Amino acid sequence: MIVFHDDYQVEKTKGKRRNISLLGVRGEKKGVLFSTLLHQTLRKGIYSYYRLVCTLLVHMDIYFSLLILTIPFLCMLVPFFFKKVNRYKWFIGCISLLLLFMLAANFKTSKEYSRPNIIFILADDLGYGDLGVYPNENPNGRISTPSIDKLASEGTQWYQLYAGHTICAPSRASLLLGLHSGHTPIRGNAKVPLPKESVTFTKLLQSHGYKTALIGKWGLGEVDDSGAPHHHGIDYFFGYLDQVAAHDYYPTSLYENTKIFKLPQNENNRKTTYSHDLFTAKAIDYIQANAHSSKPFYLQLSYTIPHAGIKNSIDGMPVPDQGIYADKNWPEVEKNFAAMVTRLDTDVGRIMDFLEALDLDKNTLVIFSSDNGAHNEGGHSYQFFNSSGGLKGWKRSLHDGGIRTPFIARWPGYVPVRVDTKSVWSFVDLFPTFTELAGISHTALPPRLDGMSRVRNLLGIEKTEIAPFLYYEFCCRGDFRRAVRMGDWKAVQENQNSKILLYNITADPGEVNDVSEKNYIVMGRIKTILSQEHVENPDFPTNPCNPTYC
After folding, report:
1. How far is CA 470 from the centre of its chain?
2. With the CA atoms of 64, 66, 67 and 71 taken in that order, what torsion angle do they form, in degrees rounded to the nearest 10?
3. How much helix, strand and coil, in percent to the nearest 5, is found in the chain?
């Protein structure tokens, strides 16, 4: 069993031990022995009580902790309200304290848990407003996502969770490495492989007894270079290595580990096997194969839905059928888009049902999210379903519509049923969060991470957690774009020569009103962050920016 914050320790005071007689029988042997025993018990109780208060100070409100601190003094005062017990006032007071300390020693402010299985379901280019469970006013109607809505109703749903980046590859690199886009080795969609020496959280999970798998889209390297999944802590891989190849939903081959997995039924432009369906089947097989293993597992199910297929094509959103949307009075491409999202939702439901059937769901943390904001490709318009959910921008933008993502977690008995509208964190926090859940000491982590563990927020111990700041940068089409989220403030710079715009993102979630001229102190802090967080990367120069990176 793993216990939260078991490393908090309270130092014992040094000094000589005294025999304190609390019974008024000084000089009698039995009185000395009893008082010594009571003294030792009280010392242990005080230690436990002080430990409790320290934990409360870390996890709860300071005023509640101060209230807890006053209880011992109240216990000492209780006997003074009774005139007939003058002789034993101190004795009764100490007994009251002893009882209090004994209770404190057994009081738990943290949750105990066995190392969970972790399933991270990652959609591709799914917008904040594409799910029924997130608010969205759209005259064209909503996309049906009952399974994901159910997932949210059984766990926690975050409203201010940010992806690692605004496009595919750097967002996935940020997730695996716990680094923001000013520090990651991959900062665009160029074919630059992940360096072999990179420390991913999957490597740490693997070395600490977890089985690891990634099914779906990898996009961080090819089979014969340093970015191949088996170099980065992935025991089992099935799917697309190349992100461009992932645009084809009816491929003639995929990869299973380092070997080619042929799909001859899709040759000659036949559309027989839809890759998304194959990913779901492989995920279910993997879960079943590890259902009774003595080792926990990490499964990242990186779906390609609803990423566009062949760009600028009539068939830009390929799907086997339009399902419940076939008779809608919508453009064909939007019927396809909606059918893709609902197909994704159906398979999330299948996986959850399978976990419950195997009785694995109670020790499995399931997270659903997307790698970046809504897309505007393949003939699909992000505006048709209001996919950004009222946020400004879409994929490739550093406004919130491009980087804020749906995020839902379920783990019965541990992740509470609630909606968190205030906490602000991002994919970079998942590295230390997953490793803490796996019981990996912080001393085993890389010396530099841009994220911090959000386990307390995940489990509802800390209701709100706000990152000191989030930093983003992106070279695209000649522009070096940057953004900072800091508390209630959001700053965006569209290129290195443009003005830095500042928004109060809490009051102005649509990022409409620039308030930079009125907040000089905030702007000073923003400029400091912008100047400090960028580290040059020769593979992704910023002056000039390579237009192929996006």
Report:
1. 14
2. 140
3. 35, 15, 50
Which amino acid does the sequence have at 401? G
Residue 192 tokens, joined: 């630059």
Say how far apart CA 360 and CA 409 lie, in whole Å: 15
- Supply the DSSP string of 107-170, one letter for each residue: ---S-EEPPPEEEEEEESS--TTSSTTS----TT-----HHHHHHHHTSEEESSEE-S-SSHHH
Tokens matching residue 423: 């906490």
Instruction: Identify whether the C-beta of residue 446 lies closer than 8 Å to the C-beta of residue 469.
Output: no
As a whole number, mean pLDDT of residues 484-506 equals 96
pLDDT level of residue 222 (50, 70, 90 thresholds):
very high
In terms of residues, how long is the chain?
A: 550
Other CB atoms closer than 10 Å to residue 55's CB: what's the count? 20
- Mean pLDDT lowest among 188-192, 356-360, 413-417: 188-192
pLDDT-derived band at 15, boundaries 50, 70, 90: very low
Q: According to the model, what pLDDT value does residue 496 have? A: 86
Three-state DSSP state, 484: strand
The DSSP-derived string for 213-265 is EEEEE--S--TTSTT-GGGTT-SEEEEESSTTGGG-SS-SEEEETTEEEE-GG
Q: What is the pTM of this model?
A: 0.82
Hey, which residues does 66 pair with through a beta bridge?
none
CA distance 389 to 216: 26
Distance CA 200, CA 217 (A): 17
Torsion of CA 420, 424, 430, 432, to 10 degrees: -110
What pLDDT, on the 0 to 100 scale, is given for residue 60?
44
Query: Helix, strand or coil for residue 485?
Result: strand
- Between helix 168-177 and helix 430-437 the angle, nearest 10°, is 40
Where does 391-478 show beta strands of DSSP type E? 407-410, 418-420, 425-426, 470-476
Q: 410-438, pLDDT tens digit by residue?
A: 999 999 999 999 999 999 999 999 999 99
Smallest Cα–Cα separation from 228: which of 244, 241, 247? Answer: 241
* Dihedral, CA of residue 112, residue 114, residue 116 and residue 117, to nearest 10: -170
Residue 485 pLDDT grade (very low, low, confident, very high; cuts 50, 70, 90)? very high
